[in-house]
Amino acid sequence: MPRQISYRWRLRELMAARGMFTVAELMPHLTERGITLSSSQVHRLVSGTPERLSLPVLATLCDILDCTPTDLIATSAQNLPVRRAAGEEAPINLAARRPTRVRLTPEG
């Protein structure tokens, strides 16, 4: 059965819980741990949901916020309904699709 996996990026929530409300407050913590990102990159991390994230950045964020990756990334999964092909609901009646046999009769 196919499954749909989704996630929610919780960086802004965890920052707020620890009293950090701006990108400027997060940047010095990243720099002191050896992560050099521009302010626009950090802003995108805080305000959006990243599609890609390096493990050193993830580990550093977890260290700064004293959390685990599971706290930072909330995941969920659900089963998707199985899609049926067109006409799959009822079995095909092959007899109804066959042409009728022609009977030749002598003319007379």
TrEMBL record:
<dbReference type="Pfam" id="PF13443">
    <property type="entry name" value="HTH_26"/>
</dbReference>
<feature type="domain" description="HTH cro/C1-type">
    <location>
        <begin position="10"/>
        <end position="76"/>
    </location>
</feature>
<dbReference type="GO" id="GO:0003677">
    <property type="term" value="F:DNA binding"/>
</dbReference>
<protein>
    <submittedName>
        <fullName>XRE family transcriptional regulator</fullName>
    </submittedName>
</protein>
<dbReference type="InterPro" id="IPR010982">
    <property type="entry name" value="Lambda_DNA-bd_dom_sf"/>
</dbReference>
<dbReference type="InterPro" id="IPR001387">
    <property type="entry name" value="Cro/C1-type_HTH"/>
</dbReference>
